[in-house]
Amino acid sequence: MILLRSQLEVLDELGMDKEIQMSVAVRDKPRAKYKTPAYVQAWFLQKSRDNWKNKYSLVKADVRLLKNRVSDVNKSREQWRLRAEDSARRLHEVEAQNAALQEQLAALKKDGLRDGPTRSRQ
Which residues of the chain have pLDDT under 50? Predict the structure, then answer.
């Protein structure tokens, strides 16, 4: 609410509450009129609107491209994660097989078959 000093003084003298709702703000100076013709203003506003729309469409296309890139990266990351988990699982299986074969070899060496099984000559 805009109240001028004189209005506040009048309200104080009358004993009225300072929070009175005013429908129209009081101004000292009248509103200045535009000197630019309306057709020029319309042209400028349309040009400004067109520029904004073009800029927005470019930004929207960039957002679409970036969303696609994020989607592709997430898919690729998921595929690599699955491949890494599969490789780790296979590695553990191969290590278990290797350990079992090492135990068999140690048992064979312990039993005295150092050179491996003998071939029968015919």
Answer: 1, 3
Residue 17 domain-assigned (yes or no): no
**Residue 74 forms part of a structural domain:** yes
Computed over every residue of the chain, the mean pLDDT equals 82
Number of domains in the chain: 1
Got the DSSP string for the chain? ----HHHHHHHHHHT--S----SS---SSPPPPP-S-HHHHHHHHHHHHHHHHHHHHHHHHHHHHHHHHHHHHHHHHHHHHHHHHHHHHHHHHHHHHHHHHHHHHHHHHHHT--S-SPPPP-
**19 close to 3: Cβ distance less than 8 angstroms:** no
Task: Please tell me the predicted confidence (pLDDT) of residue 94.
Answer: 98
Residue at 101 is within a domain: yes
Give the pLDDT confidence of 82-113 residue by residue, as tens digits: 999 999 999 999 999 999 999 999 999 988 76
